[in-house]
């Protein structure tokens, strides 16, 4: 999942922050299974404070509803491992922190199944002022690999959305 050049998550983070800075956009992150990895990686890039507003680690399902505003009925119906939940997390963190872009991760890192889903079942989402996108992933590997793959996927999706043609 690493971009060309083999720079991995750190390289993607640099590219995302630069693209956001060039466009005058701000970023907020809502994380479940990645537990702060995305935000921490972004913070590790010098100058991140120009665009990164912050993050919410919403590991518990109730935090997704209470802090990020994810629909409690949706959570009761689907559980936290769901594409619409990821989109609502992304919308919620953008709203709560006042950011242009909201990034979100939710899923099962493992080692075993949770919430009726196998380890490696992940949803990532990004919302922007011009739209949102969600991706369902099935990642292989151990817990650390699933978490890293999830972080790479959401940062990559955010970068794609910033680079895509759109109405501004």
Automatic annotation (TrEMBL):
<dbReference type="InterPro" id="IPR008136">
    <property type="entry name" value="CinA_C"/>
</dbReference>
<dbReference type="Pfam" id="PF02464">
    <property type="entry name" value="CinA"/>
</dbReference>
<feature type="domain" description="CinA C-terminal">
    <location>
        <begin position="13"/>
        <end position="160"/>
    </location>
</feature>
<protein>
    <submittedName>
        <fullName>CinA family protein</fullName>
    </submittedName>
</protein>
<dbReference type="InterPro" id="IPR036653">
    <property type="entry name" value="CinA-like_C"/>
</dbReference>
């Amino acid at each position: 999942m690493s971009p060309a050049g083999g720079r991995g998550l750190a390289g993607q983070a640099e590219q995302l922050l630069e693209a956001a800075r060039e466009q005058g956009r701000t970023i907020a992150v809502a994380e479940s299974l990645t537990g702060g990895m995305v935000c921490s990686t972004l913070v590790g890039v010098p100058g991140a404070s120009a665009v990164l507003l912050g993050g919410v680690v919403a590991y518990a399902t109730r935090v997704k509803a209470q802090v990020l505003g994810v629909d409690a009925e949706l959570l009761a119906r689907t559980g936290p491992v769901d594409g619409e939940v990821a989109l609502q997390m992304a919308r919620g963190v953008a709203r709560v922190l006042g950011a242009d872009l909201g990034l979100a991760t939710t899923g099962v890192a493992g080692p075993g199944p949770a919430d009726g889903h196998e380890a490696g079942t992940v949803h990532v989402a990004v919302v922007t002022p011009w739209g949102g996108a969600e991706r369902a992933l099935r990642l292989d590997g151990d817990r650390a690999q699933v978490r890293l793959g999830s972080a790479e996927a959401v940062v990559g999706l955010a970068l794609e959305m910033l680079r895509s043609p759109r109405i501004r």
